[in-house]
Structures
1.
Amino acid sequence: MLHAETSNDLMRQIIRTKKAFILRHIMVWAIFITYELSLIELTVGLNASLVHYAFFYLLNIGLFYFNAHVILDFAFFQTSKSILVAAIFIAIEIVFYLLIKLQCENFWNGESWLSLSFTLSHGKLWLSNIFREIFFIGFSTAYWSMLYMIRFKERNHAIEKEQLLQKSQTLELENKYITAENAYLQNQISPHLLFNSLSFIYNAIHQVSPKAGNCVMLLADIMRYSLINSEDNRTVPLLDEVAQIEKLIELSGLRHEHKIFISFQKKGRLKGIHILPLILITLVENMIKHGGVGDVTKPGKILLDSQENFLTFKTINEKRTSTLYTRTGIGLKNIEKRLANFYPGKYTLEIKDETEDFIVSISINL
C-alpha cells in the first residue's frame, strides 16, 4: 500500500511538472507573438487576418520544436559527427521549410500551389523567409542547448551526491561531499556541447543580426568564465569578476532594448585582490531578474568597496510589483552556503526587504 501511494505521488508530481513546463512555454510564446504583432501594428499595420498570422506562427513554432527535439536530438545523440550532421540537416530543413512556407503563401494569395516563379518581389519574399527561418532555428538551438545542459548537470549531480552520501561516515568523504555540493551550487559542469552550439548559433546569425550575435558572444563569455573556475578552492582576481558583471549588465541591456538602468560604482583598490568566483555576479543577476531596474529616475545600484583586506559589495534595487519569475530565495541561500564553506566566520550577509527597496550586502574579510 505504501509503495502504491508513493508511486501515485510521484506520478502526480511528474504530471504537475509537465503541466507547469507546458504552461511556461505557452506564456512565453503568447508574450512573443503579442510583442511582434503589436510592433507590426504600430509600425506598418497588420495587412492580413488574424487567422493568417495564427497559421504562420504555428508553422514557425513547429519549426522551433522540430529543430530542437528531432534534428538536434538525432544529430547529437544518434550520430558520431554531431556538428556536421546537424549542419547538413539544418540546411535541408531550411530548404524544405522555405518550400512549405512559399506554397502556403501561394494558397493564401490564391495562386497555384506549385508556382515558384522568381521575380524581384519574390526574391525579397524568399530572403525574408530565410532570415525568419534562421531566427527561429537559432533560438531553437539555444533553447535545446540550455535544456540538455541543465538535465545533464542535474543527472550528474544526483549521481555524485548519492555516491558521496553512502560514504559520508568518514571525515574525508564528508569534505568531498561539501566540495561536490559547492561545485553544484556554482553550476560548474563543463558542457562542451553548449559552446559548440553557441558557436554554431553565432556563425548562423551574426551576419543577419549583429545584435543577436553580440548577445550570443556575451553569453558565451559569461558561461566560459563560470566554467573555467570550477574548483571550489580556486579564487579569481576581483577585476575578472567585475568584468563579468559589466558583461552581464551589457547583455541584459541588449535583451531589454537598453531599458534597464543600473549604476555600478567601484571604490578602493581592485587590482591584486582575489575572491571566490560567481558570488558577486550572482547577486547582480538576482537584482536584474527580480528587481525593478527599468526606471531611469530610480536605477538599480551596485556598490563595490575594496579597502585593504576588507571587501564590501551591495546591491540596491526598487522592488518590482510583478514578475514572471517566482521568488524562491535559492540563489541567496546558495551564496550563503558557499561563503560559509570558504570564508567561515569571516563574512556577513545582510538582506533588507524594505517597503520600496530590496538591499543585499556582503562584507568579507579577505
Note: Strands lie at 236-237, 262-268, 274-275, 291-292, 300-307, 310-319, 347-353, 357-365.
2.
Amino acid sequence: MNDIITVTCIGIGATAVMDIWLVFLKRMGVATLNFAFIGRWIGHLLRGRFSHDSIARSEPIPGEVALGWIAHYAIGVAFAALLVAVAGIDWTASPTLLPAVLVGMATVAAPLLVMQPAMGAGFFASKTPTPLKNCLRSLTNHSVFGLGLFLAAALLGWVTR
C-alpha cells in the first residue's frame, strides 16, 4: 500500500510540475493543451466513439473540463507507475534524473500515436499546420514531466525522511 501511495504522490507531483510549465508557456503567449478536449474525447470514448475529425468540433460532453483534468492527473500517476516498473521501486528511495527524464520523454508516444490521431490531429500532429513544431512542443512538455517525476520523488524522499 505504501508503494501505491508513493507512486501516486510522484505522479501527482510530476503532473503539477508539467502544469506549472504549461501556465508559464500560456503566459508567454504559447498555445497549450485544452483539458476540456481530453475530457470530451474520454467522454465520447466511454460512449463508444474513439476517433474524431476534430475534437474541437465534436459535441461537448457534460463535465468535460473536470473529466479532462481528472484524466490528466490519472495519466500522470500511470506514467509514474511506468517509471517505477522500469526503474524499480528502489528508485523512489534514491531517485536519479536520467530514468525519470527518459521515461517522461517516452510518454510522448501516448499523445503523438494515440490521443492526437484520435482527436483529429493525425499521427505526430501531421494534420496540424505545424507538425514538427507541435511534436517538439509535446516532447518538451513530456520532458518537463520527466523532470517533474524526479523532482517529486526527491521532494517526497526529503519530506518523509
Note: Helices lie at 2-27, 35-46, 64-87, 97-106, 109-119, 131-160.
3.
Amino acid sequence: MVVLALATSVLWGLADFGGGMLARRVPALTVVVVSQTLAALVLAAGVLATGAWQHADGRLWFAVAAGALGPLAMICFYRALALGPMGVVSPLVATAVAVPVTVAMVVGERPAALQYAGIALAVTGVVLAGGPERGGTAPVRQRALLLTLAAALGFGGVLALIAEASDGESLGGLLLALLVQRLCNVLAGGAALAAAHRRGVPVLPAGGRAELRAATPALLFVGVADVVANGTYVLAAGIGPVTVAAVLASLYPVVTALAARGVLRERLRSVQAAGAALTLAGTLLLASG
C-alpha cells in the first residue's frame, strides 16, 4: 500500500510539473481538456481490449461524480492562482487531503499513534514545501481564499470518490471506473473550454494548431500519468487504511518542487527544504504502521 500511494504522489507531482510547463505556452484549460481526452482514448482502448465494460455496476456513479467535480475544482484552482499570491494559494490546496482522511475516520478507521504524528508532519511538510510567501506579500484576497478552499474541497472530494469508484479487485473494473471519470472530465472541461471560446478567451497557443500538435507527446504524458496515479491511488486505498494512503498520495507538491529544482534549477528556499524534511519524516512514520 505504501509503495502504491507513494507512486501516486510521484506521478501526480510529475503530471502537475508537466502541466505547469505546458501552461506556459498553451492555455491552462486547453492543457487540461486535451491531456484528459488523450488519456480517455488510451483508457478506452484498454477497456475494449479487456472487455471491462462487463464490470459496470452502481459504483460507477462515484466515478461520474469524481469526473464532474475534478474540472470544477481545477477551474477554481486556476482562478485562485490568477488572483494570487500563488505562493499562498498553491500550498493551501494541499490541505485537500483532509477530506478523504475525515471521511475514512468517520466510517471507523483509526490510524496507529505514530501514524497520527506522521499525518501531522506530512501535511505540515507539504504546506511548507509549497513555499508559502512571507513578509511583503500582497494580502490574500477574500475571493482568492474562497476559491482556494473550494478547490481544496473539490480535490479532496475527488480523492474520496475515486476510492469508492472501483472494488479494487479487478483490473477491468478499475479501467472502466477510470474511463468513466475521464469522460466526465472531458465533458465538463470541454463545456468550460467552449464557454471560454465564446467569450473570446484564447484557447490555442500563440503558434496555433501546429504548436498544439507539437505539444501532443507532452500532453499525452500528463494525461496518462494522471490516470495511472488515480489507478494506483484506488489500489492503495483498497488495501488501506485510506487515512494513510490519502496522506502519502498527497505528497505530490513536494515532487513538483523537486522536479522544478532538478529541471529548471529553481532553488529551494529554506522553508521549502524544511517542508521536504518534515514530509520525509512523516512518510517514515506513516510507513511504520
Note: Residues 171-198 form the longest helix (28 residues).
4.
Amino acid sequence: MASTQLLSPGTALPDRVLRLEGSSNFRDLGGYGTADGRRLQWRRIFRSDHLAGLSAADLQTLADLKIAHSVDFRGANECTVQGYAWPQFTRHAFMVEPTVVQRTQSLLAAGHRLTAADTVGLMQETYLSFVRDNADRFARLFQLLLRSEAPLVFHCTAGKDRTGWAAALILHALGVPREQIMEDYLLTNAHYRRPVAAGAGRLPEEVLEVLWRVQAPFLDCAFDLVEREHGGMDRYLAEVLGMDRAARAELARRYLE
C-alpha cells in the first residue's frame, strides 16, 4: 500500500509508480524540479490508466492518499464499456474521443493494411487534435486544480496519450523543463501493461506496438504545433487554456514547494 506520510528531512522519497492490482500506470507527478529550483509536492497530483478495474485494496490505497477527484478523459464508448463510480471520490468526465481508434477502424474497413509508419502518422494526428480540438477539456482540468486543493488523479484508458498531454501541460505550467516532461511521458513504456486481447488477430504486432506505447515524436508534434500556431506554450496556456501569469502563480503556490 502506498505511503501517505508527509516527508521530513532525510526521509526517503515516495515511490513515483504506485503498484496497484487494477492499474499498471498509476503515477505521482511529485518531485519534478522546476527551472527556478522548486519541486512539485508529492501525493497531490496523479496520472493513471483507467480506474474501472481497481480492487478493494486499491481503493483503500487511494483513500489513504486522500484522493478526492478523478478526471476521466475517456470517450463515451470507453466510459460505457469500462465505467466506474467509486463513492470515495468525485469523477469528472472531460471526454476526449479516441480518434486514433476511429481512424484505424475506418482504414481497416476500407481494406487498408496498416503499417507501423501509418500508425505513427495516426498517433501524431491524434496529438494535433488535442491541441486544436480539445483544448476546453484540458482547460477544465486546470480549473479544477485551481478550485480544489484536494489530491486529484487524471486518466484516460491507457494513461499515455490524453493523459500524457495533460501531464505535459501541467508540468510546463509549473515550470518543469521540457527534458523532464519528456522523461515523465516516456515512463509509460516501462510500466503500462496493455490488455492481453487488445487488437489480437486484427492488427500486426508492429502496429500494436505503436498504438499501445508512446514515442517522443508524438508529444513533440503537439509542442511543435503550439509553437507554430500560438507562438509557444506560454501563450497557448494563457490565451487558449486560461492559464495566464496570475493563474500560473496560483497553481505554483498550491502545488510547488
Note: The longest strand covers residues 45-48.
